[in-house]
Amino acid sequence: QVHLQESGPGLVKPSQTLSLICTVSGGSITANSWSWIRQPPGKGPEWVGAITDDAGPYYSPSLKSRTSISRNTSKNQFTLHLSAVTPEDTAVYYCAGGPEYSWGQGTQVTVSS
After folding, report:
1. Measured at the alpha carbon of residue 15, what is the angle toward residues 11 and 19, in degrees to the nearest 5?
2. Which of 38, 12, 18, 10 is nearest to 95 (CA)?
3. CA-angle at 82, arms to 79 and 85, nearest 5°
4. How far, in Å, CA of 39 to CA of 56, rounded?
5. CA-CA distance, 39 to 90, in Å (whole number)?
6. Are the CB atoms for 79 and 71 separated by under 8 Å?
7. pLDDT number for residue 31
8. What local confidence, expressed as pLDDT, does residue 64 receive?
């Protein structure tokens, strides 16, 4: 069974870059697709982007100019970088993926000075 765990700072200042790591166990990130999803307070989930085993990365059109997703196969991790953040980027961020599209528990990120 694939297990995913998000990690990163819970507080980021406006204009800085948000960086989150998803550590995967029970499966290899060299296969299947792996995504980042976020849920702002009071709103529904929003897909941020993904990497796949044969192409990508792919990004949400609304976030593409600020988003970068990469993988570290030696650590079985994939990383999200979101630049020039504003308070509108405050959300619970989830990583998800694998053969059964498992989800991590999510991590709260707040953008505030």
Report:
1. 50
2. 38
3. 150
4. 23
5. 8
6. yes
7. 87
8. 96
Contacts of 81 (CB under 8 A, 6+ apart): 17, 18, 19, 67, 68, 69, 70
pLDDT at residue 11 in the model: 97
Flag residues of the chain having pLDDT under 50. Answer: none
DSSP for the chain, written as a single string:
--EEEEE--SEE-TTS-EEEEEEEESS-TTSS-EEEEEE-TTS--EEEEEE-SSS--EE-TTTGGGEEEEEETTTTEEEEEE-S--GGG-EEEEEEETTTTEE---EEEEE--
Q: Which two tokens stand for residue 37?
A: 């999803």
Using only C-alpha atoms, the chain has a radius of gyration, in whole angstroms, of 13
Residues 6+ apart with CB under 8 A from 65: none
